[in-house]
Design goal:
CATH architecture: 3-Layer(aba) Sandwich
Structural class: alpha+beta
CATH class: Alpha Beta
Number of domains: 1
Shape: globular
CATH topology: Glutaredoxin
Helix content: 40-55%
Strand order of the largest sheet: 2-1-3-4
CATH superfamily: Glutaredoxin
Order of helices and strands: HHHEHEHEEHHH
């Protein structure tokens, strides 16, 4: 299946998605009856911190500047912890290279047909980089950096609780400081030529 113009009908811009996600996280984090309250508050803190502090590596900058113009389609949801850790990096990429990166966000829960038929996964976030002219897929990435996925697989195998898995995953992200994500994206840009 090829991504087409019709898939963009409900897609959000980076700014529109950012506003939606922050609003959603604010609502959830203030609702004492919502079991996801703590996760939402943590995600909101992470997104705000990263948006202020994120620095794109020279290697990723070089890879983006050497690429053809791309549309970055992101399949995600506002409450996703992995998205909270990755979305600010993607936003900074678009901010630094608006002529090379155009972000379009597809909300998974409202577009399960797109998740199942195009992305072939409901795991989020999922990134698909498309040629801006032809909409041909150049490369894809997701849903988390390889070492983070390995950690989650190990914790799942041990039967660790969701709360503890989330805590350990966010510790990994904090220690990594988005460098593995940026390195993996740099490698993907290199393959996309």
């Amino acid at each position: 299946m090829t991504f087409s113009d019709k898939h963009f009908e409900t897609a959000l811009s980076y700014q529109a998605y950012s506003e939606y996600a922050e609003s959603l996280l604010n609502i959830i984090s203030k609702d004492p009856a919502n079991p996801m309250r703590g996760y939402a508050a943590a995600n909101l803190h992470i997104v705000r911190r990263l948006k202020k502090s994120i620095k794109i590596t020279d290697e990723l900058k070089q890879a983006i500047s050497s690429s053809d113009p791309l549309i970055l389609v992101i399949l995600t949801e506002g409450y996703c912890g992995d998205s909270a850790q990755t979305f600010p990096v993607l936003g900074r990429m678009q901010e630094l290279f608006p002529d090379k990166i155009e972000i379009r966000v597809v909300l998974r829960d409202e577009n399960l047909d797109i998740a199942d038929n195009y992305f072939r996964t409901r795991a989020i976030p999922r990134l698909i980089f498309l040629d801006r002219q032809s909409l041909a897929e150049k490369f894809n990435w997701g849903n988390r950096p390889v070492p983070a996925q390995k950690l989650m697989d190990e914790l799942k195998e041990k039967g660790i609780t969701m709360k503890e898995k989330s805590l350990q995953l966010h510790r990994w992200y904090a220690k990594d400081r988005t460098l593995t994500l940026q390195n993996e994206l740099t490698q993907q840009f290199g393959k996309g030529h």
